[in-house]
Amino acid sequence: MAEHRSMQRAALLDAARSLLSEGGTEALTFPALAERTGLARSSVYEYFRSRAAVVEELCEVDFPVWAADVSAAMERASTAEGKVEAYVRQQLALVGDRRHRAVVAISASELDAGAREKIRAAHGGLVAMIVEALGEMGHAEPRLAAMLLQGVVDAAVRRIELGAAEEPAAITEAAVSMALRGVRG
Fold first, then answer.
1. How many CB atoms lie within 10 A of CB 32?
2. Res 8: pLDDT
3. Terminal C-alpha separation, the chain
4. Using alpha carbons only, what angle is made at residue 105 by residues 127 and 146, rounded to the nearest 5 degrees?
5. In whole angstroms, what separates CA 65 from the centre of its chain?
6. Is 80 exceeded by the pLDDT of residue 27?
């Protein structure tokens, strides 16, 4: 029984990712989740009490995977500048991933305070990854620089997600260039 519930919960989360990446937060409804998974709408409520609860769980499940991808890319770099470049490139490489598109949709939505706090904490963990590298580069305020660097990444993500006139590769190169010139101490 526990395994069945776990599989159903995973199916609901996968359906939520699809709905978010296809239609944004407006598409994430309990009737849509029920239809995607073949469950009765009342059954969806057995797993999640609200849309915000779905969002919170997606953040708990997907952000660590995303952060691990970024961390692994940074670990392969041998210099502090290489780590900054990997940090930017890997986040932008993940833009096409359904998990990422779902997180972007979640971030843009109107959520309750608990869900917003989980997203903020997850983003904080991502930003914390780069602070040491920025310190090694001689930046006087590496935490502030990390937050501003994440702002560059977030802007590039939005540009790619919007289907901007520039190719994603050009946006990535511009973001990397801006990050490396802008974070030198």
1. 19
2. 92
3. 56
4. 15
5. 9
6. yes
